[in-house]
TrEMBL record:
Keywords: Amino-acid transport, Cell membrane, Membrane, Transmembrane, Transmembrane helix, Transport. It is a multi-pass membrane protein. This is Branched-chain/neutral amino acids ABC transporter permease. Belongs to the binding-protein-dependent transport system permease family. LivHM subfamily.
């Protein structure tokens, strides 16, 4: 049972990295971005190229110290791969999303679905149709973690859980403690007043979309350096689960996205070994139960990033 719970925390941490970006974008811009899953997949493919390159520049780990150094290099490469999504996200927002803010939601859904198809073809053109594997998973698992307390569990999973908590802590600090984060929250609450006091909403919206794309790409990079391969279409299932998470947690709530992702991850990984036929149904059953009790979600704020 402990292993199942840890697997759920790992799964939920990956899901939170992806859903946090969608939460930020929807909470501020009011855009349901159907291309978010492909931004996640693009991060995975970028990790294949960048992490594969930087890992090849260092010697193979031979002991605990060199293994930790290797792990830090891989993490730095993953951040670099996610950073590629910053200009990509900013360019997509400025060129395609910005002109349709005042349009009906149908236009937004159609446009982001079109971007989904375009990004899929771009990845197919650059990396080919076959899955690609970074090949650093076994080396990362050599980093001593749970072995220090007498429990055998993949070190990669432990690192992802810790990184997921760090991402949530950073986002909470950014939106609560920094001037830019407070301006973003103010823009989400009242765009007209923010414009009246001199805030450039265009810049804020571009920044928000770029940050959301970054975290989607970072989630993809973390999956890519693990046992999974980067492949075309890998973002679809994560996109659907991200919608489930933000509905459970509450639209626009980072705390809700974090709690919702962990609830989905733990519940699905605890139930599935005993009732495998419920693997796909568990997240949606959880969503229905939450909506029956709290229609606005666990921490719903209706238009404010919290």
């Amino acid at each position: 049972m402990l292993e199942h719970v840890l697997n759920g925390l790992y799964y939920g941490s990956i899901l939170f990295m992806i859903a946090s970006g969608m939460t930020i974008i929807f909470g501020v811009l009011g855009i349901l971005n159907l291309a978010h899953g492909e931004l996640y997949a693009l991060g995975a493919f970028c990790a294949f190229s960048i992490v594969g390159f930087v890992a090849g520049q260092v010697a193979a780990p031979t002991g605990p110290a060199t293994t930790i150094v290797f792990g830090l290099v891989v993490l730095a490469g993953s951040l670099a791969a996610a950073a590629v999504l910053l200009p990509v996200g900013g360019a997509l927002e400025a060129a395609f999303i910005r002109p349709i803010y005042d349009r009906d939601e149908v236009y937004q859904l159609l446009l982001t679905y079109g971007l989904l198809l375009v990004l899929t073809d771009v990845m197919k053109f650059v990396w080919g149709p076959s899955p690609v594997d970074v090949g650093v998973f076994s080396a990362i698992n050599e980093i001593p973690t749970t072995e220090l307390v007498g429990f055998s569990y993949p070190s990669y999973n432990v690192l992802v859980i810790l990184i997921g908590v760090a991402v949530f802590a950073w986002l909470a600090w950014f939106f609560d403690r920094t001037k830019t984060g407070r301006i973003v929250r103010a823009t989400a609450i009242n765009r007209e007043m923010s414009t009246a006091i001199g805030v450039s909403t265009d810049r804020m919206f571009t920044l928000v979309f770029a940050i959301g794309a970054f975290f989607a790409g970072f989630g993809g990079a973390m999956v890519s350096i693990g046992p999974s391969s980067a492949s075309l279409g890998m973002g679809l299932s994560w996109l659907v689960l991200s919608f489930v998470v933000i509905v459970i947690g509450g639209l626009g709530s980072l705390k809700g996205a974090f709690v919702g992702a962990l609830l989905v991850g733990v519940s699905s990984r605890v139930v599935t070994p005993y009732y495998p036929q419920l693997e796909l149904a568990v997240p949606f059953l959880l969503m229905v139960l939450v909506l029956l009790v709290r229609p606005e979600g666990l921490y719903g704020t209706w238009g404010e990033i919290q």
